[in-house]
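mind reviewing this stuff:

——
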Amino acid sequence: MKHLRTTFITAGMAIASAVMAQGGFVPVVETYNYPDNEPAPVHPVPSHRQLLWQETEFYAFFHFGMNTFTNAEWGNGSEAESRFAPTKLPNPRQWLTAVKAAGMKGGIAVVKHHDGFCLWPTATTTHSIVNAGNANGRNTNIPEAFAEAARDLDMKYGFYVSPWDLNNKYWGDGTSRYVDSVFLPQCLELAKYGSDQFEMWFDGATGSDHAGYYGGANTKRTISNAATYYDIPNLRDTVHKIAPNCVMWGVGDEARWIGNEAGWAGETNWSMGSGESGNPNAWKWKAGESDAKATNKGWFWHAGESPKSANELFKIYLETVGRNATLILNFPPDQSGELPEADVNVLQQLGTLINNRLTNDKAKTAKRVEASVTRSAGTHRNYDVSNLTDNDKDTYWAANDGDLQATITMEWDTEQSLYYVMLMEYIKLGQRVKSFTIETSTDGNSWTKRASGSTTTIGYKRIVPLGGSTSNYSSVKAKYLRITINDAKGCPTLHTLSVF
């Protein structure tokens, strides 16, 4: 080894001598690792597909299937296929058109619930629409029609497929036959309905005390470990090869259940950890999705049900999307295969509320926006406070390394009626803010704290009612607004500050 090192040194000296003999050394252009002076990431950070998923923000759930016709929430798998008999040809385009009017960006269609009945002509079981009770049912292919309608309407789409199957004789029988010959092939079939799917939804994966048909066994079954039983790593890799931006919800371990079905997330909500609030010290990015029913009965349609009011649904929106979660809001089609007229009407009303209350951004009319600290610009990027109001999610304001506190102040020419403040972190570099304060003033000297006690995390998006309540649409009068970041995991970054 010593002889080899000597050879390299001798060769290097010979090259240097040759270069000097020709007129000197060749200059080397120095490059830097961080020419744009971007802040280092605060880990964990979202993957590209997780980021695209969170940007969907607000989307619909459509529970439709055998339970729609049996007045059940959970079947037991013994239901005759002929009971699925829609009075019209189901119309996923009508579903998606209705929810788009509310501002939703996509939807998830239930295509197989725990009863095992499949809403497409699968090769894995006869318990499907192939044996439905009428021509409307037999001519249905919900995933195909749903995907086509979503693309036409420029909306995102995905499918709910239950891993638990109360109909299939192999489920939970102590072998891998169900997973190998039924579940994984079903997921593969669904993935092939579109490489542009944004989410595949798994639920109720381990069985329960709920008795199942299981091919005639009529017994109770459970499994001990869903990730192992369903071979989730293999499933995730297989689906991602076909649909690279498809987040695997639930047992897929790329997004988490927010912890309730009531339509609210914690006012403190980290995009890692579990439950309503998450955990700032968890090592894996797993942002929360809040699922909620928009009607007053079950997840599936039931006679006599009615939708919640637009104001109730707007409150749910503020307490989910406005608290760093996504919102999947359920509107169940009825036995005609369409959303009832009352649901369509309330969706239009909700869209009007969101548009009227959260689109007139007064931050863009402020005569002055100042930050107490601003990071030095790099070669191709600056971190100026003006990035907060430029409508560009890829530009952002940032503080200097080591600065965990900062203040942003806005001033208008005249006194304003202000209802909400919306803040968005640049989460490509991680979620950082641990505590912030919002204050308003009419004279720039005397300040009043707003939303006291609820201003902790920001994350992807935070919407704070200045009147103090998500239930009331109330304003405060102010000529000045001040946001103070009190503490953060790293130098704070924000790409949007809006005031409504």
User: Anything to note?
Assistant: Confidence is low (pLDDT under 50) at residues 1-23, 25-32. Residues 415 and 479 are 4 Å apart (CA to CA). The radius of gyration is 27 Å.
